[in-house]
Amino acid sequence: MLDRRHHLQQLAALAAATALPAVAADDKDSTYDEDSILKAATDFFGQTTEGLAKVIEKAFKEQGRPNAYVKGEEASAAITVGLRYGEGELLMKGGGSSKVYWAGPSIGFDLGANASKVFTLVYHLPKASAIYQRFPGVDGSLYYIGGAGINYQRLKGITLAPIRLGVGLRAGASVGYIHYRREKSINPF
Questions:
Q1: What is the value of pTM for the model shown?
Q2: How would you write the pLDDT of the chain (189 residues) with one tens digit per residue?
Q3: How far is CA 2 from CA 6, 12, 157, in A?
Q4: What SS3 string covers the chain?
Q5: Residue 2, CB half-sphere, CA atoms under 13 Å: how many?
Q6: CB neighbour burial string for 68-86, b if at least 16 within 10 angstroms, e if fewer
Q7: Around Cβ 125, how many Cβ atoms within 10 Å?
Q8: Is residue 45 a contact partner of residue 139, using CB atoms and an 8 Å limit?
Q9: What is the rounded CA–CA span in Å between residue 154 and residue 19?
Q10: Cα(128)–Cα(97) distance, integer angstroms
């Protein structure tokens, strides 16, 4: 009886081991690799900077391979209380795209204004419509002319990693959320 149980355990382990490469192959087919993201970001921003490459490398080290990204533009300003508005296009690795608008308030030790191009890496998005919700976030950024920054927003297993290259002067740290929507709205809440 013990030999039979051991034999069944070996078969189960072998079945699991042979299934793993298929899962990994599917994962690679449904996610973006670092080189394709760097190329898409470079094409979008119109330039390659050492800072951009390092930010993307950091995101891949910390989060892995994204299955979607958003490319867009935003503007924000703050004097302790801040507002952020943006719009862009969500592109899924598996195909499909949709328009995305976002807005959100923040509060903290934050002062200044900036306009940015935003390239957001999206992780574990099950379908395009799952992005349309409020994502809480903590933002600690220093924007300066030609500056770059990244932060993470997480909700229900989905992670967004906005990479911002922009102009303006903004320094501080704040907490808030970003509400991603199907339609444009001036209401940040």
A1: 0.79
A2: 444 443 334 433 333 333 333 223 346 788 999 999 999 999 999 876 777 888 898 899 999 999 999 999 999 898 989 899 999 999 999 888 999 999 999 888 778 888 889 999 999 999 999 999 999 976 555 443 345 678 889 999 999 999 888 777 667 777 889 999 999 988 887
A3: 6, 15, 41
A4: CHHHHHHHHHHHHHHHHHHHHHHHHHHHHHCCCHHHHHHHHHHHHCCCCHHHHHHHHHHHHHHCCCCEEEEEEEEEEEEEEEEEEEEEEEEECCCCEEEEEEEEEEEEEEEEEEEEEEEEEEECCCCHHHHCCEEEEEEEEEECCCEEEECCEEECCEEEEEEEEEEEEEEEEEEEEEEEECCCCCCCC
A5: 0
A6: bbbbbebebbbeeebebbb
A7: 21
A8: no
A9: 30
A10: 8
Distance CA 149, CA 155 (A): 20
Q: Copy the structure tokens of residue 187.
A: 């209401």
Q: List the end-to-end C-alpha distance of the chain, in Å, as a whole number.
A: 64
Q: φ, ψ for residue 152 (rounded to 5)?
A: -120, 145
Close Cβ partners of 96 (under 8 Å, ≥ 6 residues apart): 128
Give the list of residues 6+ apart from residue 131 with CB closer than 8 angstroms, or none. 68, 70, 90, 100, 122, 125, 158, 160, 180
